[in-house]
Amino acid sequence: MRLMPFVLAAALLPAAAAAQCGGGFQNFVKLMKEEAVQAGYDNATVNAFFAATSQDPRVLKADRGQGVFQKPFIDFSRRLISQERLRRGLQMSQKHDATFQRIENTYGIDRGVLLAFWAFETDYGGYQGDFNTRDALVTLAHDCRRPELFRPQVFSALELFKQGNFDPERTTGAWAGEIGMVQMLPGDILRHGVDADGDGKVSLKTSAPDALMSGARMLSHLGWQPGQPWLQEVTIPADLDLSMSGTAKKKSVAQWRKLGVAAREGNLADPSLRASLLLPQGHKGPAFLAYPNFGVYFEWNQSFTYVLTAAYFANRLQGAEVYEAGKPDSGLNDAQMKQLQKKLQARGHNVGDIDGILGARTRVAVQKEQVRLGLPADAWPTPALLKKL
Asked: Which positions fall inside the Transglycosylase SLT domain (predicted)?
């Protein structure tokens, strides 16, 4: 389910000049092979790895078809979180209790965090993807949309092959090159793979202990703070200045408390922690405080909706109540969102691609225009905003 990949760890970068993206695919493969040899790999290894490499049009189609991220948080989270997924998550927590205890003791990461990723990425290992990993990575490295993200991963896969931990003809995974139960890229496996079950191999496709410990080690490397929260549902006062909300705006928990923000369950976290107020569907919908660990989620996936849903599901797996959905104002459909992005762009805002997705830059632009127009500045675009623009 990791549909917006991000290179989580520095991969092995060859010393030779990079093969340019685009052009004839087989010529691109030829240049990649030459680059690998210049980087020190022997001809036999390189030829064996790249033998029968082919472009996979399904990968390109998947890369351009990420419409699921156009869904608002409430719809998206209800789609991904079911009673069955929750039940199985609790079952897996018991089944692999020893591994989760080891993770908590070693890295200080609560089990709900790993269980949520495991659920969303592969449905607890049930479906890990059927794309040939080598072909997927080379296809995306050749494509000029984001070659800088995928090209290093080709060489990481080559290194795994050299070490005997990758079969270029048989290793399969997600369309974006992630492998195993928690979907890790080859560069991540090289740096963070853990042989947790002690069989002498790092087997992220078949060993739950290996996959979970490797994922935990990666999160720790990315900056996860042991024993700290990541997300908490809150209530906000009616007179709160909504322009203070957003992932880029932070205040101490003590400051949020003074402003009238309160925990929906229990108490707010350590008063000295800094947190952002998130209103994924505006001030009439759910509200959350996002703590420093929440930022680590964006190193796993860059979609705000996915990240928020994964963080919330981690809470649910640890006993939190279902969030209060409220009654958010109507949002925009795909055509309206693209129209909004064009209007924002015309007013000098950097919203990135006109893709119909309410991403971070679009949210920032929306909030600025809401302030300018005297609307509730909660970064939630509505038909009323579109009309005023």
From this structure: 25-314
